[in-house]
Amino acid sequence: MKTIQIEYFAVLREHARCASETVATAAMTADALYAELAARHEFPPLQTLKVAINDDFADWHTPLSDGDTVVFIPPVAGG
Amino acid sequence: MKTIQIEYFAVLREHARCASETVATAAMTADALYAELAARHEFPPLQTLKVAINDDFADWHTPLSDGDTVVFIPPVAGG
Amino acid sequence: MSSAPLSPELWRDRVRDDRCGGYATFEGWVRNTNEGLDVRRLEYQAYERLANKEGQRIMAEAAEKFALVHAVCVHRTGELEIGDTAVWVAVSAGHRDAAFRACRYIIDEVKLRVPIWKKEYYVNGDSGWVNCEACAHPHTGTHDHR
Amino acid sequence: MSSAPLSPELWRDRVRDDRCGGYATFEGWVRNTNEGLDVRRLEYQAYERLANKEGQRIMAEAAEKFALVHAVCVHRTGELEIGDTAVWVAVSAGHRDAAFRACRYIIDEVKLRVPIWKKEYYVNGDSGWVNCEACAHPHTGTHDHR
């Protein structure tokens, strides 16, 4: 089991009902972790979701390490 | 003979040594008038000169009328 | 990123330079409508650490692509009212072509890539996160984030 | 046309509009060099009656071509120092594409068509009217307007 710090923004923060949480997970990759959390928090379907690991954009298949910070990024809308 | 009001700008004003003058001329068109004044004031050769008659751009062959105001327009450089 | 109202006139001096003949700016203002809905106010949320990092990358790319001298971009977070400035971009350059093109590049890339989210609160009481497929057509009530 | 220094921050309110999401501006600043020559100061002369008329035509064309809401353009006349603002263009529009394109159109056309002339005074003591074929390369001394 790894300990992962998650931060939530926008629509995901509203569904998770928190801005951040620490989870213990067996997920090997970001996409497996997202599947786990999406089920727990009932996230809505999002077609274009990105992921950041340790404050940089990452591939969904990047192996997670103990202590990583993960942020799921719904479609952005700055400006 | 027609009486024409001339205004000078930029390089032409410096050569004419005045901002405006009133001339009596037999010139039928703006280009004939320019030739007359260029000779008198020793204007330098200018390849892209335009002309305005009564405060609007005009064709060089427009017939001049008594009392017209004529302005010769050297290459512009606003901005 | 700034949680306080933007004051473009104060930042203008940051890009002033005697070598510059062109200065192009862009401001994004909060409009009173979006896609046919009357907007009452907005909320911007940002993933600030990555937003700053990605913003710096965009500025570096612009400096690489265009002959600019200085460039600045600041984006609001928090609650905004109609007419408020959400984002400000300013570029000074030797000539206007580089200033315009760099300014446009920066705002286009910021909107596309920087992790900032906008929630619109509508006059009809609905609300929704902009560009969020799951929030599309919030006024139909199919998906409610309140 | 204005013979007094330009104050863009005061005119910003003229183009403010709750319907606008995009605001693009351009300023032309007096540079300290031009075509390799060090510039000390500038003088702008304008044929004001026709300049205002042609300026109005350009603004009307921009309003026709682009979905803008408000547009303003002011140009200086008289003596300017390095760093002074020679021209200011501001466009507000529903969206940024129209704001950018209209702003660019206006400054491009103003520079091309409006009867305004610029005389540069160089650090080396020479001077010349910009774009004037007869004044080209004033530092060679072949044509002197002093």
Protein described:
Chain A is α+β, with helices and mostly antiparallel strands. Chain A contains two helices and five strands. In chain A, strand 3 and strand 4 form a beta hairpin. Chain A is globular, with a radius of gyration of 12 Å. Chain C is 30% helix and 35% strand. In chain C, the strands form two sheets. In chain C, strands 2, 3, 5, 7 and 8 form a five-stranded antiparallel β-sheet that branches. Classes of the chains: A alpha+beta (79), C alpha+beta (146). The B-D interface holds B 7, 9-11, 13-14, 44-48, 52, 55-57, 71, 73-79 and D 28, 44-47, 49-51, 53-54, 75, 86-87, 107, 110-119, 129-135, 143, 145.
- Spatial strand sequence of the major β-sheet of chain A: 2-1-5-3-4
Q: What's the Cα radius of gyration of chain C?
A: 17 Å
Largest beta-sheet details of chain A = 5 strands, mixed
User: What would you call the shape of chain A?
Assistant: globular
**Oligomerization category of the chains in this entry:** heterotetramer
The total of beta strands of chain A comes to 5
Q: What's the SSE pattern of chain C? A: HEEEHEEEHEE
Low-confidence stretches of chain C: 138-146
Which structural category fits the helices and strands of chain C? alpha+beta
Structural class of chain A: alpha+beta
